[in-house]
Specification:
74 residues, alpha+beta
Length: 74
């Protein structure tokens, strides 16, 4: 997951200096995928990611993969 986040983080020049200073990410998920987002600070540098289930599946544990059919859009 860490490698995916690093590869999919594109920050503007003014936000790049904060890349290592960001806070923890909150996790939510629904029938379409997983969303990771920082608590909003009101600035333009807050990070937010969305991983569709097909992208997230290889990163899931065995329990996560077993639960996946009940979470996906049918």
């Amino acid at each position: 997951m860490e490698a995916w986040l690093a590869a999919n983080t594109q920050l503007s020049a003014e936000c790049a200096e904060q890349k290592t200073g960001h806070g923890s990410l909150g996790l939510t998920f629904d029938e379409k995928g997983i969303r990771l987002a920082e608590d909003g600070t009101g600035g333009d540098c807050d990070l937010e990611y969305f991983l569709p289930w097909q992208v997230a599946k290889p990163m899931l544990s065995a329990k996560g993969k077993a639960a996946l059919p009940s979470l996906q859009v049918k």
